[in-house]
Write a structure and sequence with these properties.
The complex is a heterodimer of chains A (115) and B (113). Chain A has 115 residues and is an all-beta fold. Helices cover 0% and strands 48% of the residues of chain A. Chain A is globular, with a radius of gyration of 14 Å. In chain B, strands 2, 5, 6, 10, 11 and 12 form a 6-stranded mixed β-sheet that branches. The N and C termini of chain B lie far apart (41 Å). In chain B, a hairpin with a 5-residue loop joins β5 and β6. Classes of the chains: A mainly beta (115), B mainly beta (113).
Chain lengths: 115, 113
Amino acid sequence: GAGVSQSPSNKVTEKGKDVELRCDPISGHTALYWYRQSLGQGLEFLIYFQGNSAPDKSGLPSDRFSAERTGGSVSTLTIQRTQQEDSAVYLCASRSRALSTDTQYFGPGTRLTVL
Amino acid sequence: GDSVTQMEGPVTLSEEAFLTINCTYTATGYPSLFWYVQYPGEGLQLLLKATKADDKGSNKGFEATYRKETTSFHLEKGSVQVSDSAVYFCALSDQQGAQKLVFGQGTRLTINP
C-alpha cells in the first residue's frame, strides 16, 4: 500500500508570503503528526491529530503556524507571513491506533525555503 | 521535559568496522525507544525499536538494547557496509497519549570502502 505522501516536495517563497503544505497519511491511520527538521533546531514536534479529538498544538513555534485535518485524513500545515527562520524540511508522519504498534511512518518531507 | 542525547558526529569508519553510536535519554515515565535512519536523499525510516527494559531491537544487522538502569539505547553493528552511510536519529516517545517523538540531534555516519 501507499506510504505517507507530502506535497509539494520543494517550496520557495518570499518573506511575508503565506504557504500551505499538504500531507496524505497512510490509509486507515488515525494519528497524524507534523515535525520540522532544521539545521539549528534538529527534529522537533509541531502538532498532533488523533481522530476527532482536539489537536495537540504544543509544538507550534508561533501563532503564524496552524494546521487542520479534514475528514480524519488529509492534513494541511499553514504558515502565515513566512520568515527566513521558517526555512526547514517539514515532515508528516502517521500511526495506526492498533495496540500492536506504536510506529510512526514518515513522509518524504517538504523542503521550504524562505528568501 | 523528556530529552535524548546522542554522540556527536560525524563518524567515519572503514567497511567491516564495528559501529557504536551512543544514545542516552531522560524521561519521566517509561518511554518507547527508537532508532530512525535517513539515507541520502530519502525520508526518515524506522530502523529498530524497543518498548520495555532489557528488550533488544534489531534490524539489518543493527542492534540496540533498552537499558533502564543506565537510561541508554546504544546502536551497534558488528560489520558496517558502505550502504550504511546515513544519518541516524535516536528518539523516544511516551507509551500513552500523543506518543510524540523526541529526537536526538542525529549522527552522520560515513563508511569508506
